[in-house]
Amino acid sequence: MPQVQHVVLLSFKEEVTTEQITYLFGLLAELQQLIPGITHFSGGPNSSPEGLNQGYTHGFLMTFVSVEARDVYLPHPEHERVKAELNPCIEAVLVFDFDFKS
């Protein structure tokens, strides 16, 4: 059964502080404990020297055990709760999912 990589790139509004971003990434990391089927979370600020980030300053990666687990996550109340705190701080977001076999 294929797993899913959920890649999210974020551009925070100018007025959002480093402390707020740290808090929001903490909320995102907690989702792994609150929603079944998330096997990995990592994220942070862009560190690439290539200059190809197109204004996206931060990103995170979640790994789901299956497409079905990802589909449970998307409307999950805990995900919606975190999105409600995150969205007012975001200037732009890009989401890209892909399936893979380990």
Description:
The protein has 102 residues and is an alpha+beta fold. The protein is built from 3 helices and 4 strands. The longest helix is centred in the N-terminal third of the chain and has 17 residues, at 18-34. The protein is globular and about 40 Å long. The model has no long low-confidence stretch (mean pLDDT 97).
Condensed summary:
With about 100 residues, the protein is α+β, with helices and mostly antiparallel strands.
Main CATH class: Alpha Beta
Q: Give the CATH topology.
A: Alpha-Beta Plaits
What is the helical fraction, as a range of percent?
25-40%
Task: Summarize the biggest pleated sheet.
Answer: 4 strands, antiparallel
**Helix and strand pattern:** EHEEHHE
Topology:
Layout: E1 3-12, H1 18-34, E2 38-45, E3 58-64, H2 67-73, H3 77-86, E4 90-100
Antiparallel strand pairs: 1-3, 1-4, 2-3
Helix pairs in contact: 1-3
Characteristics of this structure?
102 residues; alpha+beta; Alpha-Beta Plaits; four-stranded antiparallel sheet; 3 helices; 35% strand
